[in-house]
Structures are given as C-alpha cells and as structure tokens.
Amino acid sequence: MPGGHLHSPVWQGYALYGSVDYVYGWPAFEANDGFTAAQSSLNVVETLGYLVYLWMVWKEGGRDGKEPGIKGRLEERVEGGWAAAAVLARFAFSVMTLSKTVLYGMNEFHSGCKNIGHNDASTIVFLWIVPNGAWIVLSAYKAYVFGSNILEGHLIASNSTAGPARTGISHKEE
Fold this sequence. Notes:
single chain; mainly alpha; 6 helices; 65% helix; disordered C terminus
C-alpha cells in the first residue's frame, strides 16, 4: 500500500492499480475486506508452485550434454518421472491462475462492480480488462498445452489411440 515500507520502489506500480481496483486499495483495507487477504494467500501458494516447477526443470534439465546455465537449460527437455511431475505441477498451477483470475472478474460482476465501478470506460478497459484478460488467455493456453501433454502421456501409457479427436493430440504406434 502507498506509504508502506515496501511500497517504494518495489511495489510503486500498484498505487495506480489500487486506485483502479479497490480490492487492492485502501477502501478494501479499511473495510477489512477478507477477499484481498484470501486471494493473496492463494497467490503465495501459486507462486511457490511455479517455483517448484522451475526447480524441477532446473534440477533435472541439462543432462544430455547441452551447454550449462540458463541457455542450456532453456533448450532442454526434462524426461521421466521428473517430467511427469513438472507437467502436472505446471498444469495445476496454470488452472489455479486461470480460476483465480476468473474469480476476480466474477466477484466484480456479482458485486455490481463495487471495486471498479468508479472508473471511466477507458480506464476499465485498459487498466482492468486488458491485464486480467491477458492472465486469462495466457493461463488458459498453458492449461491447455500442459493438459494436452498429460492426456498424451495417458494415451501413450495405455497404448490407446482412442480419445477426443478435437484435442489435436496424435498418438503414433511404435
């Protein structure tokens, strides 16, 4: 919050966002609105999950002679049990990001835009809908990609070619 010990320089951009969306501003804080604290707790869990995913990729990547360090790891594939765990973690936390962001929108809709209704249309579009829409689109895409990886793994493990054709996942018999 503006005036807090971490506000400047770390969180200075949130002063603007807190004036656009009161969930993140003084009105929610002063009203003891528990939604902000509850979703912040989930943000911590989500962030820890993404860090675990990155740790798994970092720990198990780089095993096939590629250049060490970031560049080599970015060109890596993680295989075996670690890959399965990493894909599952990334899928789960992508769904979590998607669900939380949709929840924020539904919270506003069902409250009559209590926290953003004070803005003009341009502010709502560019400082609320566009950023939240980006989180929705990107996390939905990642959930789809990693969910497809999980489904493909199941199909391979079961030696099955059956499944929903619309997923675009193909299974080639060896």
